[in-house]
Amino acid sequence: MSNEDILAGLGEIVEEVAGVPAADVTADKSFTDDLDIDSLSMVEIAVQAEDKFGVKIPDDELANLKTVQDAVSYIERNKA
Amino acid sequence: MSASITLPEHPAATRIAGLGHFRPERVVTNDELAKTIDTNDEWIRTRVGIAERHFAAESDTVASMGAAAGRLAIADAGLTSADIDLVIVATCTLPTPIPHAATKVASLLDIQAPGAFDINAACAGFCYGLSTASALIRAGEARNVLLVGSEKLTDWIDPADRANAIIFADGAAAVVVTGAETAEIGPVAWGCAIDHTETIYIKDRESFIYQEGQTVFRWATSAIAPVAIEAARRAGVELSDIDVFASHQANLRIVESIAKKLIAAGASPDITIAKDIVTTGNTSSASIPIALDRMRQAGEVRSGDLVLAVGFGAGLTFGSQVFRCP
Ligand SMILES: CC(C)(COP(=O)(O)OP(=O)(O)OC[C@H]1O[C@@H](n2cnc3c(N)ncnc32)[C@H](O)[C@@H]1OP(=O)(O)O)[C@@H](O)C(=O)NCCC(=O)NCCS
């Protein structure tokens, strides 16, 4: 799975959980500041990302995923 | 050696015959809380979904609130105190462990010498209690059970702790469970998460409720929908047959997330979803029956509706079943 595929998959999850259009979920965006996603939606996004990409995203790691790129890189490094 | 032990006659099935609730008089808005703690109405509404909640007066106790709800449930069932032979109180907020609340509820309602005990399964208490009551009736050990969920959470909340002071509230509700020819209460799907025993707790007698909010949120939004689906499967009903989804009112975001999963799994998009947390707060073991009774009073739920209830909380513990609204 390429970085583009991860980004696209993440976009779908973000749209489903937080109602942000998938097209707006680009690498440089900050989840909180740009996409207006709060800490609880981040938890739901993490749970769905775990299922979709076969990664574990514990709460303490989740706190470090500030931008979409952070999430894509984390998933790329840790996916099954 | 020849004497054999006889077991009692017993009904094949059970139903809920009556329902009642009690919310303390004092209403506390988010703005009132924001006067003493660093929080605000918008944050509480968007993160938790609560607009206001009820706090008990000094004189309201787990037993007195439970008795007030119990009186209404017995009347709603068309029975009197004399008909009740077992009182079960689900609670996790007694100020002291003895005496337990059930005997006091019985005494306040003048129920003469019933069996009386409390159960503590935290916010899953109502579903655990309903299963216990139903099973005892089906075994012939009791005929009419008064099951109460009653909580005075404010006794165990640090008013300065903004994480918990905004969520928890006080109140009680009760049902009367009785025998029936056809089943109106389904089998329970229950369990606990043994890797999460220290996720919501009170450390010692001098402490207040503490919880790891995000861990609980993650668990509730991922582990609980499958439990509710399993309860429907055990009851032999399709999710599409469910009229009402009555979740424990922990956090509106949790309720909505579970409801979304149920709808994705086949529940009707028009299913009635209990959102009583908005004006009642999180009342632990009392939240499901308070929500149901208030929805019934508002005409949103009718007698005979098929309800899917799921309780979850400290332990972490969970329980779920399908039943018909009285
Ligand atoms: C308790 C709960 C609402 C807290 O939400 P959260 O997003 O996890 O809160 P956090 O502690 O991570 O804080 C997130 C932000 O909100 C702020 N915040 C926390 N509590 C706040 C409050 N009461 N008022 C205003 N702001 C608050 C924090 O300062 C933080 O701000 P920052 O991102 O600018 O630093 C949430 O975790 C929850 O509901 N969990 C489930 C608990 C539950 O249902 N338990 C009952 C089970 S029976």
Q: Any chance you could write out the topology, listing elements then pairs?
A:
The complex is a heterodimer of chains A (80) and B (326).
Chain A: H1 3-18, H2 39-53, H3 59-62, H4 68-78
Chain B: E1 13-22, E2 26-29, H1 30-36, H2 41-47, E3 52-55, H3 62-76, E4 86-90, H4 101-108, E5 115-119, H5 125-138, E6 144-152, H6 162-165, E7 170-180, E8 189-192, E9 200-202, E10 209-211, H7 213-235, E11 244-247, H8 252-264, E12 272-273, H9 277-280, H10 287-297, E13 306-313, E14 317-324
Parallel strand pairs in B: 4-5, 4-6, 11-12, 11-13
Antiparallel strand pairs in B: 1-7, 2-3, 6-7, 8-14, 9-10, 13-14
Helix pairs in contact in B: 3-4, 7-8
The structure holds coenzyme A.
Structure description:
The complex is a heterodimer of chains A (80) and B (326). Chain A is mainly α and 80 residues long. In chain A, 57% of the residues lie in helices and 0% in strands. Chain A is built from 4 helices and no strands. Chain A has helices spanning 3-18, 39-53, 59-62, 68-78. In chain A, helix 1 (3-18) crosses helix 2 (39-53) and helix 1 packs across helix 4 (68-78). The N and C termini of chain A lie close together (10 Å). In chain A, 30% of the residues are buried. Chain B is of the alpha/beta class. Chain B folds into 2 domains: 13-180, 3-Layer(aba) Sandwich (Peroxisomal Thiolase, Chain A, domain 1); 189-324, 3-Layer(aba) Sandwich (Peroxisomal Thiolase, Chain A, domain 1). In chain B, strands 1-7-6-4-5 form a 5-stranded mixed β-sheet, sandwiched between helices. Chain B is globular and about 70 Å long. Chain B starts with 12 loop residues before the first strand and ends with a strand. The chains are: A mainly alpha (80), B alpha/beta (326). Chain A binds chain B through residues 38-40, 43-44, 46-47, 59, and chain B through 46-47, 214-215, 217-218, 221-222, 253, 257.
Task: Summarize this structure briefly.
The relative contact order of chain A is 0.20. With 80 residues, chain A is mainly α.
